[in-house]
Automatic annotation (TrEMBL):
Record key words, sorted: Periplasm, Signal
Source species, domain of life: Bacteria
InterPro entries documented for this protein: SBP (IPR006059)
Protein name: ABC transporter substrate-binding protein
Stretch forming the signal peptide: 1-22
CDD domains per record: PBP2_polyamine_RpCGA009
PANTHER family the record matches: ABC TRANSPORTER SUBSTRATE-BINDING PROTEIN (PTHR30006:SF2), THIAMINE-BINDING PERIPLASMIC PROTEIN-RELATED (PTHR30006)
Pfam short name (any one): SBP_bac_8
Length: 344
């Protein structure tokens, strides 16, 4: 998707070094680069600028980096709206870096699913998109879609199964779901590690990045991989037969949230931007472009797009959010245990 963009892109250092901004009609946000940022501009940023006459300055910064900058700037924040995909809003709100949001100031809030706006008053911004983690599969090798997470343990799949390292955020969520269906929880990941050992012994492989998943599907007879909903679409665009299935036991979810930074002069304008992000039109556009799940119940998608994601009341009721704070607190120990398990 190639779109002519008028939005100005600046580095954060340039932003901090100038005092010439018209603060009353300018916002500074982060986005995640690449195809995501292209869609962010097309679906939200450019329409918002055209509708309001505002200028949106974009700093390309992924969640962890954006949060680190927010902390570093706590006495003089430079962002107006920050987007996170790793649960950083939970910590940011608890530290007072993010401002509470009055749902009454968001015209679209009433139509957003409850789980996506659970703590607005506490400073955790709404989820405007969801990356659902399920089973990406080869539709030619498996004309009948897998339907359960326990299908990963099917011996017929063993030599055609691709797992993703838990250093990858989606890989972590897929592993935690495998751990859960094997009887584990966030206080005990050993059942998941035992399952990984079993799968590797049977012929499964582990990759670290999404392009490696594509390579395995294209060249090495991969049939199934626990990964994000948008990736089945990525594979199809590469002319690889692929589909996405939600496991009956539940669907791990990465919440992509829009958060109001505390202590900024343009909070009303920032709220209008966040309101734009949770609108049906913006979320329909995101789903079409990237295959992320809408959180606005009024978003209407074609059957083709809906097949690739967790969609509608039935689709989202199975979403599971593993506590981001617990994941972050245990990440180092879990990665160490994982690395010992896969060493062979």
């Amino acid at each position: 998707m190639k779109i002519a963009i008028k939005t100005s892109v600046i580095t954060l250092s340039a932003l901090m070094g100038t005092t010439a901004f018209a603060q009353d009609n300018t916002l500074t946000i982060n986005s995640f680069g690449g195809a995501y940022e292209d869609a962010h501009r097309a679906c939200i940023i450019t329409p918002f600028e055209e509708e309001t006459g505002a200028t949106v300055n974009v700093v390309t910064a992924y969640s962890a980096d954006a949060f680190a900058q927010l902390r570093a700037q706590k006495d003089a924040p430079q962002f107006d709206v920050l987007h996170f995909s790793g649960g950083q809003e939970i910590v940011g709100a608890s530290e007072g870096l993010l401002a509470p949001i009055d749902a009454a100031k968001l015209t679209n809030a009433a139509d957003v699913y409850d789980f996506a706006k659970a703590n607005l008053a506490g400073g955790e911004g709404p989820a405007y998109s969801i990356a659902a983690i399920g089973l990406v599969y080869n539709t030619e090798a498996l004309p009948e879609a897998p339907s359960k997470w326990t299908d990963l343990l099917n011996p017929d799949y063993s030599e055609h199964l691709v797992l993703t390292d838990i250093s990858n955020g989606y890989g972590m969520l897929g592993f935690l779901m495998l751990n859960q269906v094997q009887g584990g929880d966030l206080s005990n990941i050993q059942p998941g590690l035992d399952a990984v050992t079993q799968l590797l012994d049977a012929g499964a492989i582990i990759v670290s990045t999404s392009p490696e998943i594509q390579q395995e599907f294209a060249q090495n007879d991969a049939w199934i991989a626990p990964y994000a909903s948008d990736y089945a679409y990525t594979l199809r665009k590469a002319e690889l037969p692929s589909g996405f299935a939600q496991g009956a036991e539940g669907t791990p979810a990465s919440y992509i949230t829009a958060n109001l930074v505390a202590g900024r002069p343009n909070m009303d304008l920032a709220l209008k931007f966040i309101d734009k992000e949770i609108s049906p039109a913006a979320q329909e556009c995101f789903a079409e472009a990237l295959r992320y799940s809408p959180t606005n119940s009024k978003a209407e998608l074609s059957s083709e797009v809906a097949a690739d994601i967790a969609y509608g009341e039935d689709g989202v009721k199975g979403l599971i959010r593993f506590d981001p704070a617990t994941i972050e607190a245990n990440r180092t120990a879990w990665v160490e245990a994982w690395n010992k398990t896969i060493a062979r």
